[in-house]
Design a protein that fits this description.
heterodimer, A: 523 residues, mainly alpha, two-stranded antiparallel sheet, two-stranded antiparallel ribbon, globular, B: 382 residues, metal-binding (chain B), heme (chain B), Cytochrome d ubiquinol oxidase subunit II (chain B), transmembrane helix (chain B), cell membrane (chain B)
């Protein structure tokens, strides 16, 4: 196979997924913030909360449109660029995607129109219900796509069927209640809530700094500070590290992001900083805190965290066993009723994927040399320095957000909305959740390499039989289209923010936009 | 644990559900595509264009999910079809996706500025977002009927040997134009029931009449082509409807005219093409007599008839191969496993009725014609 096609397909997927994921987190979080704001409106009946909801709703709409637009691509990309992957795992992977459409996309897309168009057609509580349905839909969508992604990281409930040459489901409940998927769901939606909270807090701070729309800004600030504090705690505490102890492949991911080259006596220490070197297979100048990693990842004092070298050795054993499974599959292709081959397959089937790693070096894995097997075993190690640094940036930001929202929550509680250093900081913090979130995606998916499906299908086997020219065409096309839309979106967003919470048909009420609103109780 | 429904029956149900999804897409998102394809022609000033846009502004997004769900459901129930068709139609799919991407932003961003140049650009973007998918979907169906140049190797990896331009040949262009005519008719009948009577309404009716006649003519021409042009495939030898989903276990060959086999075997199937003619005729009648409900009902029936005709003519084929008929994908060799088909059926049976219920409720809330006056006064309108 042509490795250029594989690398370009990966680039294509990464670009479109990362771009899509610029809009999704804000949608996830802002939809729930809208629910909170509108609930206050319905409960208190105060007009200002209607203004607040409609204002953030307008920004939600600008963002939502691009989330939908770029999401269309995602649904079809597996078939377009990852044709063999789609065949190989469609029996399991397709189901959550279809259910996502039925349960989540219909819900959010059907009600989002009514949310914008239904203000004068629905009673207050019913409109709130509609807004809630949008929030529920977006969050259910995250659930199902992470069930699908969780299965790629930890493929449970399925087995290879030699008669159809693909993976097939045998326990759907296991796929559904995959612990990796559950952890990922909580982690990802919480990250979205943090993102939206930072967004609302930052823009409110800008208004407060300029003394504009302060009644709206103070209330929005307070809601975002509370919601953001809870969410930032949830992101870190319920981070998806708990899934890393499950299988060898997940252990490899953990070892790689910790740059832990060798198994240490339990409980292992955590490397705060250092310089991992792939050539030397060691981490230079590392500063370690004792015990912490063992405690976090195994939730015990005695659990061992396996190092990279030991995991590579195990991978070598799996590859040798996988060659037997591959041999059996080839025999079964010749004769479906070859009982000896069937029995041989049953004994080695869980290692079949490891034999496929050899396809990078030899057409027929059965003819692989010991050197090739050793090479393939080392291929199971993802890019350690990249993982190591990406993780530290992401986790560092995670802890920063807790502190940030802690301060914001304190300020909101004591009604100090005039701390200029904090308001300025809040403005500059706005881009940071996106950095953390995109890095989180990179960490999860680079950490999965060399596998498309952990231990089952190597990424380089999953691509479609396309030409380099075809893929460049779509990469260039999407880049131009997405680039133009990004510029337009950001401009519209900034224009809407500058304009502030005025209704389109209203004439801005002079320089006193706060007039007429009931003051906050403490004012 | 074996699912309580037979594998053969499940495959048949999922074949039918594939049709339901395509029809659902054509009936709902179809009028959105038709409406925006008509946008530059039926609306002359900004207020008129906003009337047209707002006639679908609140509901098009939900309708489009039929398209997304189509992708997801084919992935789940017919993974082979998903893998082969979307990688085969690679650049055509890219074209469709790019056009569809313009829609959400077109609707949302157009009214954010009053600049006429800005708005005119988005009007054309919306036109492309309606016209291009309508055309390419039809072209794709035309290619499915003539067979797609792909083959499967021993590992069931698909290789495609066509090009983007190769997709456009006389028959597929005919199918593309039929698809445009059918959806423009549907869009025109939607505007007929959704827009206040006046200039936009009249222009939509005029285009509706042309589209109805074009639908009937193109559908007849397509039928003639299938009959005389010798299109069709047939399965040779025994078929095991419970067999594993592996195309190498069945033998298919290209046989001229085989797409008409089913009508001789099951005469009731002739109802589908009849409906394909009757629907547009009723729509035409409705438009002429200013009976808008009849027009919309007619264009809906037409879409049901035309899409069912394609499915029934090809049964049990889903994706025949023109260069290696033995690789052809059929109902019996391209589905998901027994367990997955059953689980997905349960999920659909539970969820789809709920979707239909709340969708109906949303349409009820938004019932009524869009007027020029509303466009000027409603701050929530696009």
């Amino acid at each position: 196979m042509d490795m250029a096609v594989i690398e370009l397909s990966r680039l294509q997927f990464a670009l479109t997924a990362l771009y899509h994921f610029l809009f999704v987190p804000l949608t996830l979080g802002l939809s729930f913030l809208l629910v909170i704001m509108e609930s206050i409106y319905v409960m208190t009946g105060r007009e200002i909360w209607r203004t607040i909801t409609r204002f953030w709703g307008k920004l939600f709409g600008i963002n939502f449109a691009l989330g939908v637009a770029t999401g269309i691509t995602m649904e079809f990309q597996f078939g377009m660029n990852w044709s063999y992957y789609s065949h190989y795992v469609g029996d399991i992977f397709g189901a959550p995607l279809a259910i996502e459409g039925l349960m989540a996309f219909f819900l959010e897309a059907t009600f989002v129109g009514l949310m914008f168009f239904g203000w004068d057609k629905l009673s207050k509580p019913v409109h709130l219900l509609v807004t809630f349905m949008v929030a529920l839909g977006t969050n259910l969508s995250a659930l199902w796509i992470l069930v699908a992604n969780g299965w790629m990281q930890h493929p449970v409930g399925s087995r290879f069927n030699p008669e159809t040459m693909r993976m097939e489901v045998n326990d759907f409940m296991a796929v559904l209640f995959n612990p990796v998927a559950q952890a990922k769901f909580v982690h990802t939606v919480s990250a979205g809530y943090v993102c939206a909270s930072v967004f609302v807090l930052g823009i409110s701070s800008w208004y407060l700094l300029r003394g504009k729309w302060t009644a709206v800004a103070k209330r929005s600030f307070t809601v975002a500070a509370a919601f953001g504090l809870a969410s930032s705690l949830s992101v870190v505490v319920l981070g998806d590290e708990s899934g890393y102890a499950l299988t060898d492949n997940q252990k490899m991911k953990l070892a790689a992001l910790e740059a832990m080259w060798h198994t240490e006596p339990a409980p292992a220490g955590i490397t705060v900083i250092g310089f991992p070197s792939v050539a030397d297979r060691t981490t230079h100048f590392e500063i370690k805190l004792p015990y912490l990693l063992g405690l976090i990842s195994t939730r015990s004092l005695t659990g061992e965290v396996t190092g990279i070298e030991e995991l590579v050795q195990k991978a070598g054993v799996h590859i040798v066993s996988g060659i037997e499974a591959y041999d059996a599959v080839e025999k079964l292709k010749m004769d479906r009723n070859d009982m000896a081959a069937r029995e041989q397959f049953e004994r080695h089937k869980s290692d079949l994927g490891h034999a496929l790693l050899l396809k990078r070096y030899v057409e027929d894995p059965r003819t692989a040399t010991p050197e090739q097997i050793a090479q393939a075993a080392w291929d199971t190690v993802p890019n350690v320095p990249v993982m190591f640094w990406i993780f530290r940036v992401m986790a560092g930001l995670g802890f920063f957000f807790i502190a940030f929202f802690g301060v914001a929550f304190f300020l909101a509680t004591v009604r100090r909305f005039d701390s200029r250093p904090f308001l300025k900081t809040a403005l500059w913090v706005i881009p940071l959740p996106w950095v953390a979130i995109e890095f989180g995606w990179l960490l999860a998916e680079i950490g999965r390499q060399p596998w498309a499906i952990d231990g089952v299908l190597p990424t380089f086997l999953g691509a479609s039989s396309l030409t380099v020219a075809q893929i460049w065409t779509t990469i260039a096309g999407f880049t131009i289209l997405y680039g133009a839309l990004a510029v337009i979106e950001v401009r519209l967003m900034l224009a809407a923010i500058r304009k502030g919470p005025v209704e389109e048909h209203e004439i801005p009420a002079g320089e006193g936009p706060d007039e007429g609103y009931a003051p906050l109780p403490a004012e | 644990m074996a699912p309580p429904i037979d594998y053969e029956i499940l495959r048949l149900i999922w074949w039918a559900l594939l049709g339901v999804l395509l029809i659902g897409f054509a009936l709902t998102d179809g009028f959105d595509l038709g409406t925006t394809a008509l946008l530059p022609f039926v609306a002359k000033d900004d207020a008129e264009r906003r009337m047209v846009i707002n006639s679908i502004g609140a509901t098009w997004e939900g309708n489009q999910v039929w398209f997304i769900l189509g992708g997801g459901a084919i992935f789940a129930a017919w993974p082979f079809v998903y893998a082969v068709s979307f990688s085969g139609f690679y650049l055509a799919m890219f074209l469709v996706l790019s056009a569809l991407i313009l829609r959400p932003v077109g609707f949302k961003y157009r009214s954010k500025k009053t600049d006429p140049v800005w708005r005119a650009r988005w009007d054309w973007a919306l036109f492309i977002g309606g016209f291009v998918p309508a055309l390419v979907f039809g072209v794709a169906v035309g290619n499915v009927l003539t067979g797609i140049p792909f083959r499967l190797d021993g590992d069931l990896r698909a290789f495609y040997e066509g090009s983007l331009l190769g997709l456009f040949h006389p028959f597929s262009l005919l199918a593309g134009l039929l698809s445009v005519a059918m959806l423009v008719l549907h869009g025109a009948s939607w505007l007929a029931i959704k827009i206040e009577r006046g200039p936009v309404h009249d222009r939509a009716a005029r285009f509706g009449r042309i589209a109805a006649i074009a639908s009937i003519a193109l559908f007849a021409l397509g039928g003639l082509f299938v009959w005389k042009g010798g299109l069709g495939f047939r399965i040779e030898g025994l078929v095991d409807p419970h067999g594993p989903s592996n195309p190498h276990f069945t033998q298919s060959v290209a046989v001229g005219g085989a797409w008409l086999d089913n009508y001789a075997r099951h005469p009731w199937m002739i109802l589908a093409p009849l409906l394909g003619f009757l629907g547009p005729a009723l729509a035409l009648l409705g438009i002429i007599r200013a009976k808008e409900a009849l027009a919309f009902g007619g264009s809906s029936l037409g879409a049901v008839g035309i899409i069912s005709t394609v499915g029934l003519s090809m049964f049990p084929f889903i994706l025949p191969s023109s260069i290696d008929p033995a690789s052809s994908l059929t109902v019996w060799n391209a589905s998901s496993s027994h367990v997955t088909l059953f689980i997905m059926l349960v999920a659909t049976a539970l969820l789809l009725p709920v979707v239909l219920l709340y969708t109906a409720w949303v349409y009820k809330v938004l019932f009524g014609r869009v007027t020029r006056e509303q466009v000027g006064s409603n701050p929530d309108f696009y």
